[in-house]
Amino acid sequence: MLILVVISNLLFFYSLFLIARVVIEFIRMFARDWHPTGAIVVILEFIFTITDPPIKFLRKFIPPIPLGSVRLDLSVLILLIGIMVVQSVIGGIIASNA
């Protein structure tokens, strides 16, 4: 049971990193002259390093949706939904055994 709680907590923190990645990408998109320095670079590199592998994997199977001259990438959204589903299943298992 403790293992399920740990997995659920890890998934929660991973989803926070995914949300932080989305915010960072929006900042980079709207403030093109923003170049982080110092400790912020290390933090951003950590966030992108741990979130890149599953996003790149999903991008192989889920193409971006063209909306006029913009292409909407849904891989992060689908990954977040998948994490929420797994967390709900784990929460149900924990609740049924409590």
UniProtKB/TrEMBL annotation:
The keyword Transmembrane applies. Keywords: Membrane, Transmembrane, Transmembrane helix. GO terms for cellular component: membrane. InterPro entries: CCB3/YggT. Pfam families: CCB3_YggT. The chain crosses the membrane at residues 6-24, 75-95. It comes from the Bacteria. This is YggT family protein.
